[in-house]
Specification:
Blueprint: E1 6-13, H1 18-26, E2 31-38, H2 45-51, H3 55-64, E3 69-72, H4 76-79, H5 83-97, E4 101-103, H6 104-114, E5 119-124, H7 128-140, E6 144-150, H8 156-160, H9 164-176, E7 183-187, H10 197-204, E8 208-210, H11 211-222, H12 234-237
Parallel strand pairs: 1-2, 1-3, 3-4, 5-6, 5-7, 7-8
Helix pairs in contact: 1-11, 3-5, 6-11, 9-10
């Protein structure tokens, strides 16, 4: 049976296959994923507002597939209106699905805390408007944000077509502009990062947290899977540590 160890539900914005592929790329044996989507065109505050009217429907679809946990993908869904909205959104997911649930925005925050990061630089796929909202969200969570720079993309299907080199190059550019960062955040579940996380950590000498990496880490924890995963950054190696 697929998912005999854990079956993790993914609620995703429409646009591309990146999150599913990256989750499967790094999943331990016995872990499978079921997915549903919420329709969105432009990745903007207005587009996100309209998309999130579909949350309850999507959460119920995951529940009926007998998942063990639910991850709301699309990092902006949780950060674009601040911490209180993100908390309320998590409550909506849990109430509609009856499952342990987490937003990707929460996963990113918890992942950076797990690694002891406080001063960070962020590379994103987003417009300047969403980057400002991301900065505010992270500062509200007590991180010091040294820089945020994005690829200024508005459509998930365009982001999904970018090669891993796009994330690698932007991240190195952002990292060069700051001093004393504890780590780097690459924010966008539609942007391919798994092929370059280890390379960036070696080249920069810093921990790198990405949206999909943090989402997988949080989903595995909610699903009760505590196995060290190597090859995709230092965060996933913490899954096998006692107390994680």
């Amino acid at each position: 049976m697929y998912g005999w160890r854990a079956l993790i539900g993914l609620v995703q914005p429409s646009g591309g296959p990146v999150a599913e592929e990256e989750f499967r790329m790094a999943a331990p044996e016995g872990v499978s994923f079921v997915t549903t989507r919420m329709y969105i065109e432009e990745v903007s505050a207005e587009g996100l507002e309209r998309m999130l009217t579909q949350v309850e429907r999507a959460a119920r679809e995951i529940a009926i597939m007998k998942a063990d946990a639910l991850v709301l993908c699309g990092t902006p869904t949780g950060f674009f209106r601040g911490q209180a909205y993100n908390l309320a959104l998590t409550g909506r997911l849990r109430e509609a699905s009856g499952l342990p649930s987490v937003t990707m925005a929460t996963a990113v925050v918890e992942a950076m805390r797990r690694l002891g990061l406080r001063k960070i630089a962020a590379a994103t796929a987003y417009t300047d408007e969403l980057n400002q909202r991301l900065r505010a969200f992270l500062e509200e969570a007590d991180f010091q944000v040294l820089a945020v720079e994005g690829l200024r993309q508005r459509y998930n299907w365009d982001i999904a077509r970018m090669p891993p080199a796009a994330a690698y190059t932007l991240t190195k550019e952002v990292a060069r502009k700051v001093k004393d960062a504890d780590g780097i955040l690459i924010c966008s579940g539609a942007l391919r990062t798994f092929e370059v996380i280890d390379l960036l950590e070696r080249d920069l000498g810093l921990p790198v947290v990405t949206s999909n990496q943090a989402g997988l880490w949080a989903g595995l924890r909610l699903g009760g899977v505590r196995e060290t995963v190597r090859g995709f950054g230092s965060l996933l190696t913490t899954l096998g540590e006692s107390g994680d």
